[in-house]
Amino acid sequence: MAIGSYDREELDELLESRQFRKLREMMSEMNEVDIAEFIEEQEPEKKVLVYRMLPKELAADVFSFLEVEDQEHIINSITDYELGKIIEDLYVDDAVDMLEELPAIVVKRVLQNATPQTRNLINQFLQYPENSAGSIMTAEYIGLKRNMTVEQAFAYIRENGVDKETIYTCFVTDSKRCLQGVVTVKDLLMNPYDTVIKDIMDENIIYAVTTEDREDVVETFNKYDLLCLPVVDHEDRLVGIVTVDDAVEVMEQEATEDFEKMAAMFPSEKPYLKTGVLELTKNRLPWLLILMFTSILSGTVLMDYEHAIQVLPLLLSFVPMLMDTSGNCGNQSSTMVIRGMAVGEIELKDVLRVIWKEFRVGLLCGLVLAAANFVRLMLQYPGRPMLSMAVVLSLVAAIVLAKIIGCVLPMLAEKMKLDPAIMAAPLITTIVDVGSLLIYFRVACALLNLA
Amino acid sequence: MAIGSYDREELDELLESRQFRKLREMMSEMNEVDIAEFIEEQEPEKKVLVYRMLPKELAADVFSFLEVEDQEHIINSITDYELGKIIEDLYVDDAVDMLEELPAIVVKRVLQNATPQTRNLINQFLQYPENSAGSIMTAEYIGLKRNMTVEQAFAYIRENGVDKETIYTCFVTDSKRCLQGVVTVKDLLMNPYDTVIKDIMDENIIYAVTTEDREDVVETFNKYDLLCLPVVDHEDRLVGIVTVDDAVEVMEQEATEDFEKMAAMFPSEKPYLKTGVLELTKNRLPWLLILMFTSILSGTVLMDYEHAIQVLPLLLSFVPMLMDTSGNCGNQSSTMVIRGMAVGEIELKDVLRVIWKEFRVGLLCGLVLAAANFVRLMLQYPGRPMLSMAVVLSLVAAIVLAKIIGCVLPMLAEKMKLDPAIMAAPLITTIVDVGSLLIYFRVACALLNLA
């Protein structure tokens, strides 16, 4: 919600009736995110028209919030001079994100219109490996020197702060650009003007290295509640910063990837509605194929007990219930463990505690479900106590087995440096199916003398 | 990682050899999060010992990062005077979080040792509904007046800023505490000292209302890349702020809840390792029971075609593969849609686009899987082309059906104001199972003349 928020209908009307001066005035009071949204909803020609109307100081900010398709469209519709202005005003991380998605020919034109300095910086940032700290950082930070006074620091910030992603955390570097300390604007405000930075800077710096995994960067943000994290290269030189909004975006992306992997899909790069049918199919097919052929095993178990089924076809009617229930139980355990490991609540050293816990939970769940089932079976098939017995006994055993497989496999994957998320519902279900069918038919054959 | 990070072994040694002065000195250079971690790893008596050693200005910060069990232990081991100091120094949101978990008798003692003002504030905050904006906000913000100059604002911040959660966003209120504008420290720094606040404050304020759902708060944070969001009551009076670190925590909790719901569990309040077996069982049983009884339906379908199975037992061997594959396909679609709606990428109005997309993806996946299966069947059962045909035809139909059910049900839940996350793998699988078994046996009976 927003007090004094913009009136969407008024905007549309102003644009419709070509009252561009008023429209421009209204937009200059709006939030960049809302302007970007307004532009995105226009017809292609109007997008450029509205975009060109923006006050200079808003243009690059709004541009960075546009979808890449719209960015491309605007780039292709403006002059080299206008393009050059945008590129210089964009933060490096936003420029890099955009360039990674644009077609090569557009990238070439963009880089040609950047100053040599910006071009070099962008090229350097484009080279950091995907999913590394370097790939999510930006270059616009405030760098101070240790011998500056608070007064000098403020003067420096006033002069250079406009274009920085954050001015609230400042970094102190030496002549070799090595990181020496951190000082916040709060520290500066709380100390007299003649204080020297080196006396108030914090030398216990939390930082990341360019090649570090971006997931670790996010963990550091969460652990220390940071607003901003410096990134250094392998010679300890400060090369960039990650701001909290970018860390939050990574967090959301990583969670989405886990959801996708746990549903037996390869993570997609783009939002669902923007992903083509072919790409979606490509992401989903590999696991479907693997799981399909694995589930043939369950079919084989069924055929092994063909004789028992021929003698007592009723046995069959409990197969889906057994398979579904044990699958669900395994799914619950694996989800708890995978998520617990992802947020750092469960570690590998907890494996025995987890198994012991799941064993007891499994036993309890199994007993309650078995009791409910036993009542139902005794009512529905009063003359068949041994069959009912066979069903509920195998139900308990299958549930306990499922709970244990469900918690052990993700931890095993983690131990083997695989992604635990692949050991989720789909694979667990297939594995647990085989186990529960085997238990069921063995128990039934023994109790009912079918073998 | 941290430059000049603390040496854990040295800390242990200092504590072991009772060199408390050195230990205290070392801790005063450390990050509060790391100190809290160090305290948590000590024996109970040593926890209090180390905690009491902390410099005054660190004590409350470290306290807020401790687990609630340790907070309780420390509260029970210190004097009323010490307790009073802690309570006054804690941010209201941290105090409220803690009080919500402590036993009533401890809560009583804590409130008795707070000043009347703090006690009233805490009591007011404790009353906001769970999961509301009010329940995650805190009271320590910087409030300015519209007629202050930049110089006066800085003087005010210098005097009052030490205890505020953030000083970087300041809120301008009128005499009735109604929110009028927002001004950042960056704005203050970029303008001359004699500028009047009302001329530079932003009147287009993004804010939340105390009763608003905390999920909406998080969405606003993400949409506008905020560091801080003001919260007003129903009379537009500013009552608190939500800072980005708290929004991030909510984001993580909401994602965890979705993972749990999608695996047919009630979300747990506590981390896995701290949740008792009984509570885990209670969270998992209800859905297991519902799903177990629903899956009886699949068993009934099997029994309906008992005759066909008696005639051709081989039919059975493809049942698990059909059930598993269609379940997996439905799971993939529902996960995409549930997550897409959770992060705001997919909206209800997209329903036809989603169905059309899933139909095509389903058809493609189905055709590929059917082709792979057909090859395998023709090799394994060369004399049974009609059986192979029945299997692959029903496979394609079941997959398309699963994809469509998988995307429609979560959207239907959203439409009916239910939580879409319940329409995930477990329930989808059970529903899809019935459908795919019906398709399979109908097709098989028709093609193989079994009816």
From TrEMBL, chains A, B:
Gene3D superfamilies: CBS-domain, MgtE N-terminal domain-like, SLC41 divalent cation transporters, integral membrane domain. It is a multi-pass membrane protein. Residues 201-257 form the CBS domain. PANTHER family: MAGNESIUM TRANSPORTER MGTE. CDD domains: CBS_pair_Mg_transporter (cd04606). This is Magnesium transporter MgtE. It is found in: Cell membrane; Membrane. The lineage of its organism: Bacteria, Bacillati, Bacillota, Clostridia, Lachnospirales. The gene is mgtE. InterPro entries: CBS_dom, CBS_dom_sf, Mg_transptr_MgtE_intracell_dom, MgtE_N_sf, MgtE_transporter, SLC41_membr_dom, SLC41_membr_dom_sf.
